[in-house]
Design brief:
The protein has 792 residues and is of the alpha+beta class. The chain is built from 30 helices and 29 strands. The protein has 5 domains: 176 residues, Uracil-DNA glycosylase-like domain (Uracil-DNA Glycosylase, subunit E, 3-Layer(aba) Sandwich); 182 residues, 2-Layer Sandwich (Nucleotidyltransferase, domain 5), CATH 3.30.420.10; 158 residues, Taq DNA Polymerase, Chain T, domain 4; 129 residues, Alpha-Beta Plaits (2-Layer Sandwich); 105 residues, DNA polymerase, domain 1. The strands form 9 sheets. Strands 9-12-11-10-15-16 form a 6-stranded mixed beta sheet, with helices on both faces. The chain has a 5-stranded mixed beta sheet with strand order 2-1-6-8-7, with helices on both faces. Strands 24-25-21-28-29 form a 5-stranded antiparallel beta sheet. α27 packs across α28.
Length: 792
């Protein structure tokens, strides 16, 4: 093995420490000269740091087997004991790593650095004993550990290793930010020290009242709760980036922190103040659900930092720790995000942690407000904040899962599951537990000697693995299909039909307004461990390419007595947005005329006046892929033709509709200019990955998807504002809710009016919305026409 020593000036303000040399470094005998070094040089130049003035080295001076440092450095006790490696800072280290550590601190100290940059987990561990670079990156740490010897008191900034960036290019922006804001900025302005925190997390009653009065006078505060076992443990209030109070409500053994009379009075004071002030929060609908449950208090947040991040940079991380690393003037990782703490022991530590949370939230919000203004996204942010209130009301409203309907579906699913068990047991020759991956794997790969997929998740029993086994072994396809269908049935039964109801008998979920980069809602069980995802309840439709049909589970969702359920969905929504983006007069005319657009498109593609049903379906798939940037080879595979035939068809389609090609051209130019695309509502998507075909296709898809999600949110709000409908579920392109049946003649015209949301193209687009209603259940909704007097 060749030892690769550090390289650089004898004295250096910046010392950069990596993990271990790679193949190129070993060959040239110098650190950071391979692909990682090339990327590091590029980023250093961008932020104004000269590599020639930095000293570069590695924790380990030898190249590990397969460039995998975990072969020499591991947290696995068995591996460490087997190799007789000592445990250093919680990890077992080989002789090669031990040698590097023994030399490292004096080697670095000899350069008298102002700042040490640690690239990756190994460097983070070597200087701090911590692990988890994605959490710790961007932290400004003053080295304190005894083992760093002469480096005590030196500034240390851990960040992502360039080799990791090469694997996940979107993280390049994080590396660049850390070197610019935490290193170069500090070299110019001076090394930062931890702020002088003004935390009061053990207040007496008088101090709490005084602070609440101050908060009320200020009119704005960051608010955060810590929770455990469904109860609020403490309430944090932050009035600046460094000043906060944590008001404890529960202490050790889950007893009340205050005397009962004091607790009641304190609750009233908190209610009064929070009703009056502008609240800053992080994912505040979570906190709001606890205030509603524990205090009967309905709150609206003025600035939610997670929503602001979703508007500024859709699709990027939005946990508080990450936002603090990007927006706070000084940052050092302090937290593990948890929705609900279990088995609390260190209450005092949690109270201090709560103060850090609200101070970070306050500072992040101030920085985001400036960035929203400079990006001209303030109107979009305020719109999403307004919608967030409707989403909270929707999740608190919940739905009714009918007892009789649920029992009927349970029986239906039970029979369907048993039918598939019979198929599997007959093929296997004995009964097995289909919920056991181990037993399924034994039957497939041991008893039946099936070929096991190389990348087989869940021990070779993942859905993808079973589909592959069915293709390789047609005689066992029926059994694999039966297992897959059994899983689908059992999953919906367990997660929906058997989901726990709230104490009032309602089925609720948690809706997330920031769950996707396209502004679609996501859903999960509620914050108290009950309920389920209400967005994936099957309507009984067959999946494309499959003959299997789940039961119509929506039959279990019923309206209250005297109410009607309505279900409205946007017709051909994505396609219409694409047509308006392309400004294609011919396709606009066809869509407005209500013709079968897929048949008309098949005429253009296949050059025929009477496409067959099979050509219609192939044309539908072909147009979709072509519109969204798919190449001839992709289209050929999808529709079952030759690449040459696909090339001819694409030329014919794009020649007939050149606006599609112009839209593609505009999108590519926007990506090459600033990696940003926008929809007609002014929302934007910034891409941080490489500009390539994959990014291009993602950008094309984002425009219609985000547009439709915004339209649906507008319709949701208008329906409640204009006619008082109670929305229960808002999906990507549909809205489900209830209204009093006796008021139908008054409500339906207003409901129709609420659906008329124009997309602000030069030629405004209003996507028509269908209507289905039922007094029985969501699953029983039947199509009907909007009242004729409103159709005009």
């Amino acid at each position: 093995m060749k030892k690769v020593l550090g390289k650089g000036p004898a004295r250096a303000d910046v010392v950069i420490v990596g993990e271990a040399p790679g193949e190129e470094e070993e060959s040239q005998g110098a650190p950071f000269v391979g692909p990682s070094g090339w990327l590091l040089d590029q980023v250093l130049r961008e932020v104004g740091i000269r590599r020639s003035e930095c000293y570069l080295t590695n924790v380990c001076k030898y190249r590990p087997p397969g460039n995998d440092i975990e072969k020499w450095l591991t947290s696995k006790k068995k591996v460490g004991i087997k190799n007789d490696w000592p445990c250093i800072n919680g990890r077992y280290a080989s002789e090669e790593v031990q040698e590097g550590i023994a030399e490292l601190y004096d080697e670095v100290a000899g350069r008298q650095p102002k700042i040490i940059i640690g690239l990756g987990n190994t460097a983070l561990w070597a200087f701090t004993g911590e692990w988890g670079i994605q959490s710790w990156r961007g932290s400004e740490i003053t080295l304190q550990a005894d083992y760093v010897g002469p480096l005590q008191g030196t500034a240390f900034v851990p960040t992502i290793h360039p080799a990791s960036v090469l694997r996940s290019w979107e993280t390049r922006a994080h590396l660049t930010h850390d070197l610019a804001q935490r290193v170069q900025r500090r070299l110019v302005r001076g090394i930062a020290k931890e702020p002088q925190w003004e935390f009061n997390y053990k207040p007496n009653f008088v101090e709490v009242l005084d602070f609440l009065e101050e908060v009320e006078d200020r009119g704005t505060a960051a608010v955060d709760v810590e929770t455990s076992r469904g109860r609020i443990v403490c309430v944090g209030l932050g009035v600046s980036a460094t000043r906060a109070m944590c008001i404890p409500l529960i202490k050790e053994n889950y007893r009340l922190y205050w005397e009962e009379d004091t607790y009641i009075e304190l609750g009233e004071r908190i209610r009064r103040v929070l009703r009056k002030i502008r609240i800053i929060g992080q994912n505040f609908n979570y906190d709001a659900s606890y205030f509603k449950d524990n205090f009967g208090l309905t709150l609206r947040v003025h600035h939610d930092t997670k929503i602001a991040q979703n508007v500024l940079f859709p699709g990027t991380p939005a946990k508080l720790g990450f936002l603090a690393s990007m927006y706070c003037d000084w940052h050092s990782y302090w937290k593990e995000d948890a929705r609900d703490w279990q088995n609390l022991r260190d209450f005092e530590g949690l109270f201090r942690y709560n103060c850090r949370d609200v101070c970070a939230t306050y500072e992040i919000a101030q920085a985001q407000a400036r960035k929203l203004a400079s990006a001209k996204l303030e109107a979009q942010f305020r719109e999403r904040m307004r919608y967030n209130g409707y989403v909270f009301d929707m999740q608190e409203r919940g739905v009714i899962r009918g007892e009789m309907e649920t029992a009927q579906l349970e029986a239906e699913v039970e029979n369907a599951c048993k039918a598939r068990e019979v198929v599997v047991f007959e093929k296997a020759g004995h009964e097995i537990n289909l919920a056991s991956p181990k037993q399924v794997a034994e039957v497939l790969y041991k008893d039946l000697e099936c070929r096991k997929p190389l990348k087989a998740g869940a021990g070779g029993t993942s859905d993808e693995a079973l589909i592959q086994v069915a293709k390789w072994h047609p005689k066992h396809a029926e059994m694999c299909t039966a297992i897959l269908e059994w899983r689908s049935l059992a999953s919906v039964r367990n997660n929906f039909l058997r989901a726990q109801l709230d104490p009032d008998g309602m089925l609720r979920c948690s809706f997330n307004t920031t769950g996707t980069e396209t502004f679609r809602l996501t859903s999960s069980g509620n914050n108290f461990g009950r309920g389920c995802n209400l967005l994936n309840i099957s309507s009984g439709k067959r999946k494309e390419g499959s003959s299997f049909r789940l039961p119509n589970f929506r039959r279990a969702i019923v309206p209250p007595s005297g109410y009607t359920i309505f279900d409205c969905d946007l017709a051909r929504a994505d396609l219409q947005v694409v047509v308006w983006e392309a400004d294609d007069a011919d396709l606009k005319c066809k869509l407005r005329a209500g013709v079968d657009i897929h048949t008309e498109n098949a005429k253009d593609i296949f050059g025929t006046v009477s496409p067959t049903p099979e050509q219609r379906e192939r044309g539908k798939t072909f147009v979709h892929l072509t519109n969204y940037g798919g190449g001839a080879r992709t289209c050929a595979v999808a529709v079952g033709c030759t690449v040459k035939e696909a090339e001819v068809a694409q030329r014919r389609w794009l020649a007939a509709h050149p606006g599609i090609l112009e839209w593609h051209k505009r999108t590519r130019e926007a990506l090459e200019r600033n990696r940003t695309v926008a929809n007609k509502f002014g929302y934007r998507m910034v891409f941080f990955d490489r500009v390539d075909d994959a990014m291009f296709r993602a950008a094309l898809a984002w425009v219609p998807q985000s547009t439709i999600a915004i339209v649906a949110s507008h319709i949701h709000m208008r329906m409640e504002d204009l006619c008082g409908a109670q929305i229960q579920v808002q999906m990507y392109d549909s809205v489900m809710g209830i209204y009093p049946t006796v008021d139908e003649n008054v409500i339906l015209p207003k409901l129709f009016e609420a659906t008329q949301v124009p997309i602000p193209y030069p030629d405004p687009l209003i996507i028509s919305m269908g209507l289905k209603t039922s007094t029985k259940s969501w699953g029983a909704c039947e199509e009907r026409k909007w009242p004729l007097k409103n159709a005009a």
